[in-house]
Write a structure and sequence with these properties.
Layout (H helix, E strand, L loop, with lengths): L4 E4 L9 H9 L6 E6 L11 H10 L4 E6 L7 H6 L2 E7 L6 H11 L2 E6 L17 E5 L14 H14 L5 E5 L7 H7 L3 E4 L1 H4 L4 H10 L7
Parallel strand pairs: 1-8, 2-3, 3-4, 4-5, 5-6, 6-7, 7-8
This protein binds D-xylitol-5-phosphate and zinc ion.
Length: 223
């Protein structure tokens, strides 16, 4: 049976209590901590860089899933790996030499991920799918938490699942943006492996219970 991964997105945490928020994730059933790095150029928002990721790594007992929403990510891969990234995901739209960048991530020792914006078809990954550990399908336009899930992501998950299975790739399918208890089950049924959840976890009355509920969903079909 395939068991999915739940990755709370720290972007939605209360940064005045970052230590406590990360401790909540440590004590929860979450598998990873999703960390959004934004540069104000690739996306219209700025978050934090490797120094803050390093501090999060000191506090977190869950692997860091680092989502780089930055231009020229190849310049910073080793630095984020040193800061403690377990997964490093770059954007297809920010990488003219994607194959080289994927291999640079793998050589750093991190799991290699590629994220696709909502308008980018999954077919662009056909020639690199075997080299990937993770594909992140953006189900909102990247840059902000708390946005509405874009429904067109559903058929993209199915297409990607088919590509991964026929090519015998080990890539995990991650869904990022607008994920919560209302759509987790359909996402898993469509073939998702990793659910990123920002506001649905951190703004919940009981974040830990929400993480457990996201973990408890089962896809209808066992693979
Ligand atoms: C958006 C980020 C997401 C964000 C998701 O650019 O990549 O990881 O934190 O937040 P929610 O779950 O609130 O949509
Ligand atoms: Zn993200």
């Amino acid at each position: 049976m395939r068991k999915h991964i739940v990755a709370p997105s720290v972007l939605a945490a209360d940064f005045t209590r970052l230590g406590e928020e990360i401790e909540m994730v440590n004590q929860s059933e979450a598998d990873w901590l999703h960390v959004d790095v934004m540069d104000g150029r690739f996306v219209p928002n700025i978050t934090f860089g490797m120094f803050v990721v390093e501090a999060m790594h000191k506090l977190a007992r869950k692997p860091l899933d680092v989502h780089l929403m930055i231009l020229e990510p190849e310049k910073y891969i080793e630095a984020f790996r040193k800061a403690g990234a377990h997964v490093i995901t770059v954007h297809y739209e920010a990488c003219p030499h994607l194959h080289r960048t994927i291999h640079q991530i793998r050589e750093s020792g991190a799991m290699a991920g590629v994220a696709l914006n909502p308008h980018t078809p999954v077919a662009v990954l056909e020639d690199v799918i075997e080299d990937l550990d993770l594909v992140c399908l953006m189900s909102v336009n990247p840059g902000f938490g708390g946005q509405k899930f874009i429904y067109q992501t559903m058929p993209k998950i199915q297409k990607l699942r088919e590509m991964i299975d026929t090519r015998n790739s080990k890539a995990l399918i991650e869904i990022d943006g607008g994920v919560g208890l209302q759509n987790a089950e359909s996402l898993l049924q469509a073939g998702a492996d990793v659910l990123v959840a920002g506001n649905s976890v951190f703004a919940a009355a009981d974040p830990r219970a929400t993480i457990s509920a996201l973990k408890a969903f089962q896809p209808v079909f066992d693979f």
